[in-house]
Amino acid sequence: MTKRRMWRLLALLFAFSLVAAACGGGDDDADDGGAGETETETTAAPSDDEAMEEEMEEDEDEGATGALGGAAAEEDIEAAVAGETEEEEMTEEEMAEEEMAEEAEMMFDRSTLEGIFEEAAARRAKAVATLTEKIEAGEYGVGDDGILRGPEGFEIDMNACPDDWSDTTGITDSQIRIGHTTAQSGNLAAYGNIAYGWENYFNWINENDPITVGGSARDLTLIVKDDAYVAAQTIEFVDELIEAENVFSILTLGSPNTLAVYDKINEECIPHPFVMTGHPAWGDPVNHPWTTIMQMSYSTESILWGAWIKENLADLLPVKVAGLVMDNDFGLAYELGFEEWAGANSDVVSEYLPVRHDPAAPTLTNEMTTILAFEPDVFISMTAGNPCLLAIQEAGQSGLYDDINAKGGALFTPSVCKGIEAYMKPAGDSADNWWIIGGGSKDSTDPKFVDEPFMSFVNANLEAGGLDSKVSLYAIGYTYGYPYGEALRIAADLPGGLNRTNFILAVRSIDVYHPMLLDGIITQLNGNADAYFVEGSDFSQFDATVQTWNQVGDVVDVNGKSTNCAWDKDNGGCR
Fold first, then answer.
1. CA separation for the pair 369, 515 (Å, rounded)
2. Residue 253 near residue 183, CB atoms below 8 Å
3. Contact indicator for 279, 335 with CB cutoff of 8 Å
4. Which of 155, 391, 418, 560 has the fewest CB atoms lying closer than 10 Å?
């Protein structure tokens, strides 16, 4: 374990201890409770052969029940919470690299917009230098055998791409054409505002600091298709983007929508990075090398819900937990993930009741009536879009909110519904004191962040573009657009200039400071070794009076620790 990893685990332990102290604490002597450890304990030390056999069996079990695959290292999180981190010696080279990285961060003033942009330029220059050296040495890039190689064993067989495939499709004399499917109508239409914010950021780039190809500026052009969160429509629009619009790359929104098309997008060898969904399936660089994730994995969120309960509701354990689950692939990822965690931690969760709802349901009254009758100690909303608001409202109107708070329990809204203006403010007092594992994102309307230099820049651009800066989902477009733009710039400066293969190399090597995320959240990818861009989160509680999320304790970050996930569409879970 390197010094970097050791410090991350220590930081994780410290974060949870702060959360526990702030919210009532827990049993410091409590064990991990994980099924994998307790079931394999023996009184005698196993032989080397037995140990190897047990390890292979554990790996097989994980593959067979991998609902928590793609998580930010369940064992590391649990070990850190229980104070069981291991310290290992660090080499002099690793120490030097760590010190250089810390010194480099101190060189830039993140309290100014200029400092943020200077740091971004420096990080891009470093990435370009590293990748260029590898490409010129023949280690990275497309070899004579037609294999595209990148960091940490990352490979794509370009021989399998369509016969009419081109590395520069979507790049014209004046444009870089990027396709986007999203929901701008239907029950999740609010998420369609992200596309308007993303386009607003690209417009700023085009007007102020354009990306150049062959020495001439090209406009980033976003081609948006409204699929209304209907996967069948997503399939049609992706076909249209590929065959008629001739796009350079594609961005999709929604777990069921992306699952419906990511096989084809990868077969067509089209870059598909930073998708707008936290499903663990996007962490699959071996089978789906063109697709990458942006936000925290839902599997990680599931583990963190459980870890929070274990640390902060010690007087109530074991607790009854009810989940309101959107009945689609998105909700299934949450449901299976928490179900697996709860099953391995029966001393923490005595009963878990998932109640599913139709994504298009206009009300949630029946579902909340069922949940109220269950008398849970903890309620977790595992839904998205307008149902997040409905869940908070129904919890208040049904009495569930009062019952759980009277017990000293907790109510959680999901990370995808952190938007204050869209989901919390309309719920009024019923939103007060709800918890969130927030994925580290900043809300652009939150009083704590509105005066930050980059947030001021974002809100000013939105207003200049005719968009209401009070709609925080517009600003989320910058959260997605920022790393996308950085990767495009890196690719444009590599040997051969901007093309699809250089772009995916830049994406799979990206390491940026993201000003739209909380300090302490590391944002990077590293070939096959690190397939998850964000692997950390805040623990925050909503204050309805001030209309702000109050972070409790430090952020949790286990960057580089998540397992890759080859998702089983038929049975669910990672294989």
1. 42
2. yes
3. no
4. 155
What is the predicted pLDDT for the residue at 285?
98
Q: Up-side HSE of residue 539: CA atoms within 13 Å toward CB?
A: 28
Separation of alpha carbons 177 and 202, rounded Å: 11
DSSP state of 420: I
Give percent of the chain with pLDDT exceeding 70. 82
Distances (CA, A) of 360 to 236, 367, 387: 21, 14, 9
* pLDDT tens-place string over residues 470-499: 999 999 999 999 999 999 999 999 999 999
Q: Report which residue type is found at 26.
A: G
- Per-residue burial over 410-422, b if 16 or more Cβ lie within 10 Å, else e, is bbbbbbbbbbbbb
Cα(276)–Cα(252) distance, integer angstroms: 6
* 512: alpha, beta or left? (left if phi > 0; alpha if psi -120 to 50): beta
Distance in angstroms (rounded) separating the CA atoms of residues 50 and 237: 53
**What integer pLDDT is reported at residue 33 of this predicted model?**
32
Summarised one tens digit per residue, pLDDT across range 520-531 is 999 999 999 999
95-123 residue pLDDT tens: 556 555 555 555 899 999 999 999 999 99
Tell me the one-letter amino acid at 543: D
**pTM > 0.70: yes or no:** yes
User: Which one-letter DSSP state was computed for residue 45?
Assistant: P
CA distance 194 to 295: 14
**Is residue 56 exposed (0-12), middle (13-18) or buried (19+ Cβ within 10 Å)?**
exposed
